[in-house]
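Chapter review. Work through the record for EF-hand domain containing 1 before attempting the end-of-chapter questions.
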Amino acid sequence: MSSERGPALPFLPGCAFRDPTKTSFHRSQTLGYKNGFAFSRLPTVGIGGERLYVNQLSQAELDELSNMRPTLTYGQARQAPPSGFIPAHVAFDKKILKFDAYFQEDVPLSTEEHYRVRQVGIYYYLEDDSICVIEPVVKNSGIPQGKLIRRHRVPKNDRGEHYHWKDLNRGMDITMYGRTYHIVDCDPFTQAFLESQGIELNQPEKMVFDPYTEMRRMPLRMYITPSDFDQLKQFLTYDKQVLRFYAMWDDTNSMFGENRPYIIHYYLADDTVEVREVHKPNDGRDPFPVLIKRQRLPKTFVEKQKTFPSCVLEISDQEVLEWYTAKDFAVGKSTTLLGRNFFIYDCDEFTRNFYRDKFGITDFQPVEIKEKPPEEVPQVIPPYNGYGFLEDSLQNCFSLFPKPPRKDIIKMLENDHKVLRYQVALESPNPEDRKRRFILSYFLSDDMISIYEPPVRNSGIIGGKYLGKTRIAKPGSTTDNAIYYGPSDFTIGSTIEVFGHRFVITDADEYVLNYMESNAERFPAATLQSLRDHLRPQQVVEETAKSDVPALGTSQQELDELIVRVQEELKLHNYLNNSSIREALLRCDKDGSGVLDKAKFLSLCNSLSVPTNAVLVNKLIDLCSCGEDKINYRDFLRAFPS
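Structure tokens for EF-hand domain containing 1:
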């Protein structure tokens, strides 16, 4: 059976058949969107995409349209564009009709009121035809108020109808959920909207007020205050209004007295006065803020008899002629409160405005309070008592908990385990003490000295530690200017005074001479020469003969005098840096022999701007020369002390 005859057959059992070529069985869509809004439309195809002839034009209508002369002559007429579709929730968004209404309810259990009138507002929302009823909240009314009917479509009757804006008008009653509301008026927008829709509005009515509420608003009694002064009136008028004055109490005449700042509070509500202390950090006073508690202060007393127990009874109006009032306080004046004289030097802004309005006072120039500077007590350092170091004893004069003096950490690290040892003899009138020999050790890390006596058998003297590590000051040193013994003072034959005992240096280690030669710029030439003459006299003579450098006798004295003259001449050259010259020469001497090439030495001096063309400097270079092409620069560096 062909598919063309299929639709003509009746749809009867046994006559229906299934089209095997049909694969789609869904229904066509009847909803569409235009301008962002959904709208319904008629289906054009049926189930499975079959064409529907129900919503199509008939053949006669098609023939009529094709044979119409105006259409053939002038063409198809232009249809007017359809008006834009605007949904209700867009057209009436935030457009609300407001009606003023009231309802009346009975009050059965009250003798003062028989009924109650409650005012409400009826709001009609045009976008969804919903209604809500709201009663304005009255504070302390005791009635649950606010939203009486929530927003929704309110039913009108039992037939399922709802209230419409056409059912609302002024001067009518509307019943919602068993409660009848009488509408008296509406707002201008509601009136304009209803009149635009052709509804004739009734005349507005006056709002009815609750009689019991109106009765409560009336004053119960009227009376006149018998006196102008009323404490209750004063309290209600000036409650929480306080005058503040800044005052100073001069207590410098008493022992350990001072100028102490205070704040005076005058309470206008009851004419009481309070005096509070002003504390500062570390002022040395107990933290009690109130000097005079809040009370009425008497200004003038009644002449009392001698038998009146003033220390027992409280002060009352019978004992006082006049109390302190606001007119007794002024900026720049003194006032006596309970025996203390307070000088008022300033007040706050509220106090100024009060006196300006109440008394007409306009002069509130604050008085500058100058505190007397404390007398400087000179710090007298007591003399040294001999215990401990001078620096340690001096710290006891600076603080209650003395701090140890700072140490030179870099010096301690560089000179750690470096000790200069000397042999000393005790200078004493006793012949037995003259034979005693001691070892004096000087520690370069902290400049301390210790003395040790080697034990000698059968001498009758117990040896051992004679003096522990300590710093020894020179005779004549004071606490302000302490001068201690150093390696420069230890020459062969020199005398050292240690706590009343005198020691003579008789010998030294070879390490002492080597250390001083490696750091010759830090020690005087006399100290270095003294050790050379004592430890290596023969070697010095031989080296002098080889190098042809004067070192002993008259030649050494001439060299020392020449170096002094060169130093005086080089003082005129302020641009010279002695430390840089010394470092440059020592850096070039890599093997530490003390000898450099003369050409290299002269070029290095020219780069450092050393005036080698001067007569004295050139003569010093000639004396330090070792032959024609070598020069011993150590004696030359003596002219550039560090």
